């Protein structure tokens, strides 16, 4: 205490930090913050459906067809990693009902296949390959099961829940439990070969499954579906979010009044809801190839690295996540085209965002909260942030350099633990001694990458930021 008093006498100008800004609106959980940090990950489809050369197995494929001759999870994981993917979700069971692990819940599983003489566990092998490479691991277990005789009846729900429990208890911490909304229709159903309809808003009783099974057994797994709970579906499989993407979302019902899984108006999922009820950012899922499964006739029709980079800017660059579908061939590895594309995609990202001009810039804010300096914007520490004083919801940040720089991208990150606060930013450049507008954007959130249509050449940029509460930014990068 004494020392502090002396310091004040000696340096009366030392300002005491102000308290942190009050949080604004709904906030992300720790598990969602971890998800935001990943940005890109992959989704692997590899089941008997691959061997049938179909997109949706009917549920009648003989397990004997599942026999990859050169299964190489390390090759798949390494290729994904070279593309900058930070985790992989394995489709442990697709709509055909075949379980890639030796489950006790159904005979229709990997132990009945010739692969490793029925002694294999593909979920385990993918999991271990991911862990070895420092990648996160998650699972997708399709609720629609075209093999199960009980599908559509209450008994099947117990089977499905038992499958989730097995996946949640035997494969370590999962970063995601992925759930899709394709439900009911025709199928094998234990030989019935018929059409079965279910009411997907009630049949799966998702609230109980997620609260009592997923949250209890995998508290750090993000639950993905059309209605979250943690991450919402973007509403299409094209791989991008709307220009304005709010991480907050108030789901609207498609029909009736209650928005539950399977009854969400996905037209609003891409944009989300400003000041929405839940923190529920969008995931943009999209396959690298035309389909989710490998089809030899689609060799050469993969998205190229440039197309993936575009999707990256329109998903990750809008504060959403990118979930890229990867489809191993019948051999059990990725096709050489896919490997090459992933590598090029990773290189493109590294090249575009390697030389951060903000680190050698001077950043001046018109208004700064005491103790929340602009140097936090370039310290590469997500936990530190620059903020404005209470009552200041609009201010300018000026970024300047000694010399004129060529600028293609501007990256801005809000300090989201305190909520999504910014409504919009307008960007100006100094040109011939005058401020000239370059562009303006709306939502910022976890990450916004602004690409200038043409690279700009200037030694000064001005950002005019408007927010619904004092502004909190954790990072500014310029490339
Ligand atoms: C959809 C499924 O119907 C597709 O087959 C695929 O698995 C995709 C990722 O999700 O809902």
Walk me through the structure.
This protein is α/β, with parallel strands linked by helices and 479 residues long. The chain folds into two domains: 30-352, Glycosidases (TIM Barrel, Alpha-Beta Barrel); 357-478, Jelly Rolls, CATH 2.60.120. The chain contains nine helices and 19 strands. The protein has helices at 2-10, 30-38, 48-52, 73-82, 122-132, 154-170, 206-217, 305-315, 336-352, and strands at 40-44, 87-93, 136-141, 176-178, 185-187, 194-196, 222-225, 231-233, 248-249, 278-279, 282-287, 321-326, 362-365, 386-387, 394-414, 422-431, 434-441, 448-467, 472-478. The strands form four sheets. Strands 1-2-3-4-7-8-11-12 form an eight-stranded parallel β-barrel, surrounded by five helices. β11 (282-287), α8 (305-315) and β12 form a beta-alpha-beta unit. α4 (73-82) runs parallel beside α9 (336-352) and α8 packs across α9 (336-352). Residues 7-14 have low confidence and may be disordered. The structure holds beta-L-fucopyranose. Beta-L-fucopyranose binds next to loops.
Termini separation (Å)? 46 Å
How many individual β-strands? 19
Residue stretches low in confidence (pLDDT < 50, at least 5 long) are 7-14
Strand order of the largest sheet: 1-2-3-4-7-8-11-12
| Number of domain units | 2
Main attributes?
single chain, alpha/beta, Jelly Rolls, 8-stranded parallel barrel, 7-stranded antiparallel beta sheet, 25% strand
Concise synopsis of the structure shown:
By secondary structure, the chain is an alpha/beta fold. The chain has helices at residues 2-10, 30-38, 48-52, 73-82, 122-132, 154-170, 206-217, 305-315, 336-352, and strands at 40-44, 87-93, 136-141, 176-178, 185-187, 194-196, 222-225, 231-233, 248-249, 278-279, 282-287, 321-326, 362-365, 386-387, 394-414, 422-431, 434-441, 448-467, 472-478.
């Amino acid at each position: 205490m004494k020392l502090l008093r002396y310091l004040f006498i000696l340096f009366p100008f030392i300002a005491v930090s102000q308290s942190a800004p009050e949080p604004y609106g709904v906030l992300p959980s720790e598990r969602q913050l971890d998800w935001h940090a990943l940005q890109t990950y992959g989704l692997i489809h590899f089941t008997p459906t691959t061997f049938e050369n179909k997109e949706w197995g009917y549920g009648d494929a003989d397990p004997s067809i599942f026999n990859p001759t050169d299964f190489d999870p390390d090759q798949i994981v390494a290729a994904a990693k070279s593309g900058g993917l930070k985790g992989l979700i394995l489709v442990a069971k697709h709509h055909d009902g075949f379980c890639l692990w030796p489950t006790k819940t159904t005979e229709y599983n990997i132990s009945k296949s010739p692969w490793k003489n029925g002694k294999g566990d593909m979920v385990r092998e993918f999991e271990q390959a991911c862990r070895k490479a420092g990648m996160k691991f998650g699972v997708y277990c399709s609720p629609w099961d075209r093999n199960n005789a009980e599908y559509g009846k209450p008994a099947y729900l117990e089977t499905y829940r038992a499958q989730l429990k097995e996946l949640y208890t035997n494969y370590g911490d999962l970063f995601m439990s992925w759930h899709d909304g394709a439900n009911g229709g025709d199928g094998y159903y234990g030989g019935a070969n018929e059409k079965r309809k279910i009411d997907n808003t009630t049949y799966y009783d998702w609230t109980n499954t997620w609260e009592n099974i997923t949250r209890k057994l995998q508290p750090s797994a993000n639950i993905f579906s059309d209605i979250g709970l943690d991450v919402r579906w973007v509403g299409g499989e094209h791989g991008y979010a709307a220009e304005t993407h709010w991480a907050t979302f108030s789901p609207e019902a498609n029909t009736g009044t209650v928005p539950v899984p399977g009854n969400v108006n996905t037209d609003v999922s891409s944009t989300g809801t400003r000041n929405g009820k839940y923190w529920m950012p969008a995931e943009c899922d999209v396959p690298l190839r035309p389909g989710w499964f490998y089809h030899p006739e689609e060799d050469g029709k993969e998205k190229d690295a440039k197309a993936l980079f575009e999707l990256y800017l329109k998903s990750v660059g809008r504060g959403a996540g990118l979930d890229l579908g990867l489809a191993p061939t019948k051999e059990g590895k990725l096709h050489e085209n896919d490997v090459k594309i992933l590598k090029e995609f990773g290189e493109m990202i590294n090249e575009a965002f390697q030389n951060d001009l903000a680190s050698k810039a001077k950043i001046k804010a018109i208004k700064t909260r005491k103790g929340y300096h602009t140097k936090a914007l370039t310290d590469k520490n997500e936990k530190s942030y620059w903020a404005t004083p209470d009552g200041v919801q609009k201010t300018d940040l000026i970024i300047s350099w000694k010399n004129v720089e060529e600028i293609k991208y501007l990256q801005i990150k809000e300090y989201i633990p305190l909520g999504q606060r910014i409504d919009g930013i307008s960007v100006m450049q100094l040109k011939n001694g005058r401020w000239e507008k370059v562009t303006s954007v709306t939502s910022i959130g976890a990450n916004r990458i602004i690409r200038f249509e043409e690279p700009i050449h200037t030694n000064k940029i001005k950002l005019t930021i408007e927010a619904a509460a004092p502004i909190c930014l954790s990072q500014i990068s310029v490339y």
